[in-house]
Amino acid sequence: MSLKNLSIFSLSVLLFSVFLVIYLNQENSKKLNRIEQWAKNNQIKVDKSTKAQKFTIDFDEKEWNLLKQKLSLTRFFTSLKDVPSFDFGFDPDYARELVEYWGNKFDWKSQVEYLNSYPQFRISINDTIIHYVYYTTNPTAEKRINILLLDGWPGAFFGFYKAIDFMEKNYKDICFDIVVPSIPGFGYSNPLEKVVDPFDTTLIFDALARFVFGENSQYFVHGEDWGSLISTFLAKLYPERVGGIHITMPPLTSFFDFNSLLYAFAGQFFPNSILTEQEIKFGFKFSLSELASLIIKKTGYFHIQATKPDSIGAGMSDSPFGLLAYVLEKYSFGSFGLNAVGKKDGGLEKFKRDDLLTIITYYWMTNCISSSMRLYRNTFYTLEKGWPRIVLNMKKISAKVPVAVQVFQHEVSFVPFKVLKNKYLNLSMYNLVENGGHFSNFENPEKISNNFIEFINLAL
Amino acid sequence: MSLKNLSIFSLSVLLFSVFLVIYLNQENSKKLNRIEQWAKNNQIKVDKSTKAQKFTIDFDEKEWNLLKQKLSLTRFFTSLKDVPSFDFGFDPDYARELVEYWGNKFDWKSQVEYLNSYPQFRISINDTIIHYVHYTTNPTAEKRINILLLDGWPGAFFGFYKAIDFMEKNYKDICFDIVVPSIPGYHFSTPLNKIHNPVETSLLFDALMRYLFGELAHYYIHGEDWGSIIATTVPQLYPTRVSGIHITMPITSESNILNNICSLLLPYVPSLFLSDQELKHEFSSRFSIKSKLWKFWDEFGYFHLQATRPDTVGHGLTDSPVGLMAYILEKYSSWTFERLNKISGSKDGGLEFFNKDDLLTVCTLYWMTNSITSSMRYYANSFNAMLEFRKQNLDFFSLSVSQTVPVGVQMNLNDIFVTPFWFIKSRYLGLIQYKIVEQGGHFAAFQNPELTVKCLVDFITQVEYKI
Description:
Mean pLDDT of chain B: 92
Shape of chain A: globular
Strand content of chain A: 5-15%
Distance between the termini of chain A: 59 Å
Strand order of the largest sheet of chain A: 1-2-3-5-4-6-7-8-9
Structural class of chain B: alpha/beta
Largest interface: A-B, 62 and 62 residues
Shape of chain B: globular
Radius of gyration of chain B: 23 Å
Number of helices of chain B: 21
Structural class of chain A: alpha/beta
Largest sheet of chain A: 9 strands, mixed
Strand order of the largest sheet of chain B: 1-2-3-5-4-6-7-8-9
Oligomer: heterodimer
Order of helices and strands of chain A: HEHHHEEEHEHEHEHHHHHHHHEHEHH
Number of helices of chain A: 18
């Protein structure tokens, strides 16, 4: 091909790309408006007659004894001697230690008292039972802010208790109206016998917020894990109500588009070009091989939960030990990453044993491990319904809603600032935090509280 | 572009392709030679003093009562009302039914007697315990055939019992010297407390055959699941010892560039690659990349988890009988029957087709030997080994099997994946038999003992009487 022809060809490709981008952006704005319109039309009406029931967690002695009986019958297997601890998953020797403690020393009754230290309620919205904590800090303070605190899997609503306590004690001039709902299928948001995906959950949580805070009240959202995804959906669907979202794990799947892949491609050969200085200092990577490695090495559990949750649910609903090993492995890997490998305890002794076992016992007592894992399957199950399910093909979040991202060093997945900016058009805060992991409310309640409140003040 | 330029361009592409193929073939031969050299150096010496111990399975009453106690304490969860059963994995309602049967009606004692109906042994080779069945059919027949029967995960050695029985009754003129070993870490080839991968299994099983039949012995291999992979590896190591391999799960390597390009082209020019029979059975859509990726997503969650974090899921399966059962039996459902019509929405996922006692015997066997976790670790070990071997330029899992080794393939249509003849032939150069089994699933000998044996013996006959 002659040089002249080549130049014309390249120029036309360039022009075509430019037109394509402009066209797609216009399509995007149209779609954005379309979805906001859809959201307005499909917003869940909360009946005037709907009432929330006060809720207290029982100390069920019979169930607690059954749990202890099962623990006493636990059967173990041996660890591989030539494989580092926690390389193949939860270390069998350490598991045995925890089971011993759980069955003989752990005081579930006291923990139930602790879980009941904040007022809880249950309500039925759209035929779905939602359990939530509703607490008001410093009720006489002048400044009132409504907030939703959302966690994910395998988290628990009381993971936010320390944060709530911190907010109350350290921000006496603000009255926070706090709602901490549990995702349908999680904990006391049960029983759940129909498919409810994160998108449905978004509509339900917005309805709950309107029920508690008032029809047109503004609210801010803090979201971790699935909570980050739901926060993003809330901002997308109801920008007129959502004052801002503060997230710790930008949903990677929402960034699986051509744009991000281009960045990943660039990151493969010029890693520093797509990262900020701070991101480089923290050792974050974003490249095709990094994404591939993430998908292969870290998402086995995600894959099976997203396809056959009932097949693994059976064992974990029946074996407390199985439940413990499966869930606490996440607390190890999620908090410390590969640093957990080789450690006898996978790093878990950093946390209070009682705190960890309370989470496991909560999943056990509510018999919700299976229904909680189904959330993953539901997400893909409803995809075929198409519009407006927008899990995997999310375009941009309107500039109307400010977004803050606070990423902890050992977070499971990473999306660079430069890629985030493309989706979250109003990315007003971006912070990296050293030495923290995935379970932020659990591990760093003060850091997320401070960052969240700073963001809210910035947005207001 | 002018016609002249176009022709020159096409010709250079053609020449380049030809050179590439020749180069790749040479590389292939070089790599195969390297493997054969490695095999010679790593061949396991079976000590003269090594002795196999006769082995009988105990009916352990204490363990059986503990199992029943756990079953009686089983805690279940509820199914989703707006989703067809089995779409989210093993249906909890059917699990409840099976647990009821398992704890109250299943007769493990009789099953143990059944398991002991063929002579078994245990031997330690290379510090690794191997349990195996060794049985000779029609010992007075003139024609002697040594054969290894290999299964995989989540199979069990007794899955071959009906096949062995059929071989004995229907081929009275052949004396089959049959060996059915369990992969280290599976069932009674335990305890296994070190890393073990399929290449090592191949070395071990070859050593076992030499122990039983002599250093110059020749043998056939029938392999399903992991057994197919082992059956593919042994002739790469010792092509002169293996008389032929009969497999249900051929692995046509995805790292073969030519195969991948053809895979991409297949949906557009299916008749170029597929026979009429294959076309009739929709191989063009089932073998397309899109279809394979989708199937991989749907069915390989377990694989993904076991290949990365086997212990994490192992704990629950070691401690909970229903957990073990649901996890394993889901495979007997989804790998045997067609999903849309037979599984989705059905009460039992198709499992009523199988004998309930047989299925529960598989589960109880994994339970009693406490081997589910070590069986799953095989996946993680293999994955790591594959990467290690690749670094050493010993590409077991992607190189071809020499033309000198006859290969027979039994393609079961309801298995997870299907592979067309054309693609199998590109890796298994000695492919001489290829049979499509219409209602067949992944557990070939377990589900269809007679048909599987017929395919196998047809293959062996072809090999034997061609020489």
